[in-house]
Amino acid sequence: MEFLGTTQLASYCGTKKSCLFPDLAPTTTTKDTYQSYYLPGYRYLSSWKPSLIHKVVSIPSSSEQQFNSVRQPPTVLPALRSALHARYSTRDWRHANMVQLKGSEASRCCSGRLNADSMRLMQDKDQLTHQMQEDSKRNLAERISNIDFWRSELMYELESLLKETQDLETAKKRLECAVDEMQRPLKVTLECLYHRENRKGIDLVHDDVEKNLIKELDIFKDCQEILKKLAQKIGQQLCINRGAQHALEQDLSDKNSAHFIDEKCFNLRNTSDNINFYHGVEKVDGTVSVPATWARFSEDNIRCSQHARANSVKLRDDTEVALESTSEQLWNHFVSTNLAFTSRIAEVADTKNKLEAQLAKILQEIFQTEDTIMLLERSIKAKEYPLKVAQTRLEGRTKRPNIEFCRDAPHFQLVTEVFTIDDTLQTLKQRLQEAHNTMQMLIINKSKLEDDISVKANSLFIDKKCMDMRKVFPSTPRLIGYT
């Protein structure tokens, strides 16, 4: 839409240059009717400049008298004559109105054509947008149908794989139960060795019990080696099954997420609340597959799962054969080791009883020494007050004046008393120190006896605990995996 013409400016804003018609030459009527005035101190003033006319009206009275003396003024004042001065003629006014009307009519016609074209354009784009939206909904519906198909295939294969994995885990549990039952004596032997490593001090000896446990351990290892290897193979196959299961579950989870998202997108309408602008999202291509690779991905996951199921069946057959071939040589060393435990427990218990009797004597001596220390401390405390009295008397007698400060008999007696009490205190403190040393020696012996008794008690507790662990031995049905 074009702008026709330009804004008309007032005459005092500058020289007018009309874009509609050329400037008109001044008429003789305007020139003859209105005369210019020459005022003292002013240049020639145009009658259409209001600010200068205001200055003309505001001139002092003396200037008016001088002006009147030269020429008689007209009956109309200059300010009123400026107001009566016309800027445009009637012809100019009519011409400008005609131009304005024609420009407005042309703008209206242009606007009408634009509105009609805009309505047709909006109708066409509405139809195109509706068609595109319907095509998108149809494509989303087809995609949801494809996702439903592969979801059903993945769910069926996943259920089959889960069942086969569960059967293989059952076989592995039977194998583990057999290994546990066969290994239980071995496990007990290992635990006994580990527990006996917790013996302390001099009791950490390589006795007959330990020799029998090590020999028993060597015998049991050969019986469990076959089952361990088979269990390892089953464990590896279970890892493969779990990998295939994880791939199926991940694929199924992705399909569920895609189904939810596509269904949500399918249900979106123009009146939905959760729609928004995401500028530039159509320019971002973060896709990682095409329909062909998308379908092949699920086919590969299903084929891998089927291969894993076939290998699981073969391993279950091997397990049944292996469980029947190992369940015989576990009793002889079990009995001999228990006899060695019984003999060692009796020996340790006898030594512990002797140490406890000696500890009781040491404790009695400690109690007597503590009483002696308490009496010595009381005696030392009792000697401190007489010493304070004697020293206070000596200090008080030092204040006697002049000749009265005499070294008399009381002075000698007080000095002797102080030395005697001080010597007594030193003797008692020395005896107290000896008592403390004796007490310390008794406490050290007591601590050693307690430590030794604790060591023997710990060894006795460990051996009894090992005997409690070795009370049960597995039967033959348990050795082949039946519980």
3D architecture notes:
With 483 residues, this protein is an all-alpha fold. Helices cover 75% and strands 0% of the residues. It is built from ten helices and no strands. The chain has helices spanning 28-33, 50-57, 61-70, 78-83, 90-196, 208-266, 291-323, 332-397, 409-469, 476-479. Helix 5 packs antiparallel against helix 6 (208-266), helix 6 crosses helix 8 and helix 8 (332-397) packs antiparallel against helix 9 (409-469). The two termini are 95 Å apart.
- Taken from the alpha-carbon principal axes, the silhouette is flat
Assembly category: single chain
**Beta-strand residue percentage:** under 5%
Helix content: over 70%
Distance between the termini: 95 Å
Largest sheet: none
DSSP helical segment count: 10
Quantity of strands, as a count: 0
User: By helix and strand content, what is the structural category?
Assistant: mainly alpha
SSE pattern, N- to C-terminal: HHHHHHHHHH
- Any low-confidence stretches, pLDDT <50, length ≥5? 1-73
CA radius of gyration: 61 Å
Q: What integer is the average pLDDT?
A: 79
Summarize the structure.
It contains ten helices and no strands. With about 475 residues, the chain is mainly alpha-helical.
Output the keywords:
75% helix; 483 residues; 0% strand; mainly alpha; disordered N terminus; flat
